[in-house]
Write a structure and sequence with these properties.
Elements: H1 9-16, E1 24-30, E2 37-43, E3 46-53, H2 61-73, E4 91-93, E5 96-102, H3 114-130, H4 144-153, H5 155-162, H6 164-179, E6 187-190, E7 199-202, E8 205-209, E9 216-219, H7 220-232, H8 240-253, H9 258-284, H10 297-308
Antiparallel strand pairs: 1-2, 2-3, 3-5, 4-5, 6-9, 7-8
């Protein structure tokens, strides 16, 4: 993710003293993403990812730690949270908190072909099944109510920065979504940020899923729609076979019910406007940081337009 908090070797060595993970060998900041400060940390015992949480509710952090621990213990390919010498999963750094997790094998890819999309779809379905026994609950903080509130508040600034057509599209979509809420769809633990930069591959096979800090209780079809928009849709050159490959991989593990299939077009639109709104917010109201990456809102405006024509 982006680096907002800068750490030096002395800082990391101090953090490592509370773990049995060996001595610090080297470290580097991770520039991809937009939410937390992340670093690769190499020790004499192995390679880890250190995260400093930048704008997350501290009361919610145990949920993410417990969820990753639950999933990794159940053989789902997600990072294993490293346990401190005192038995805790979270450390303090100044007025912030953080964690250390295992570094999974594999690399992120910018574009996925059909075989990789099938694997990504299958692993997302595995996640939806694997979370079934997890007892802790967390409501989705960036679902429809949040989308409408943030999107409405930004109307004037969107018009000024991106033009009247963009503001009109946003306003119309927010109205449509409120008039067409999806109800009664299956749900459970969802990732809610299943993008290429959160999926690791060795060759054509997914070897890991990372960044569970948007995970929550939610509608499975919505999580699938996030993945379709992020991984399979390019409004300029969308290949229908790519979308079909991701869905086929998913359904091989967890078949969709009729209600989910019928709701998928609406879910695609909802997922598209959710990430358009969040990218607009980050672009219009940027935060300071040492290595801050702001993703292009226009990508998701184009994807929303594509999704509005999907059937």
């Amino acid at each position: 993710m982006s680096v907002y908090t800068e750490l030096g070797p002395d800082d990391i060595e101090l953090i490592l003293k509370d773990y049995a993970l060996g001595e610090l060998v080297s470290f580097e900041g991770i520039a991809a993403g937009i939410e937390n400060s992340n670093f690769f940390v190499n020790t004499s015992n192995g390679r880890y990812v250190l995260t400093i949480f930048e704008r997350m509710d501290e009361a919610e952090l145990p949920y993410f730690m417990h969820l990753m621990h639950y999933l990794s213990e159940g053989d789902f390919p997600c990072p294993a949270v490293q346990i401190r010498n005192d038995g805790g999963m979270i450390f303090s750094f100044g007025d912030k908190q953080g964690c250390l997790v295992s570094c999974l094998p594999g690399d992120t890819l910018d574009v996925l072909h059909k075989v990789q999309l099938r694997s990504a779809g299958a692993v997302l379905a595995r996640l939806h099944l694997a979370g079934d026994g997890f007892a802790e609950r967390r409501n989705n903080p960036t679902y429809l109510d949040w989308i409408v509130r943030i999107g409405t508040d930004m109307q004037a600034d969107v018009a000024a920065q991106y033009g009247a057509k963009a503001a009109k599209l946003l306003r119309e979509e927010l109205v449509w979504q409120q008039r067409n809420p999806a109800k009664g769809l299956p749900g459970g633990v969802i990732h809610a940020d299943y993008f290429c930069d959160n999926i690791l591959f060795c060759g054509n096979i997914v070897t890991g899923v990372i960044d569970f800090y948007y995970a929550c209780d939610g509608v499975f079809a919505y999580d699938l729609a996030i993945a379709v928009n992020a991984l399979a849709i390019d409004p300029e050159s969308t290949v229908k076979a790519n979308l079909e490959a991701l869905l086929a991989g998913y359904e091989k593990v967890r078949p969709l019910c009729d209600a989910e299939r019928q709701a998928l077009p609406q879910m695609l639109r909802l997922a598209a406007v959710r990430f358009w709104v969040s990218r607009l917010y980050d672009a219009l109201y940027p935060r300071k940081g040492a290595m801050v990456q702001v993703k292009d809102p226009e990508e998701y405006r184009r994807k929303l337009l594509w999704c509005r024509n999907f059937s």
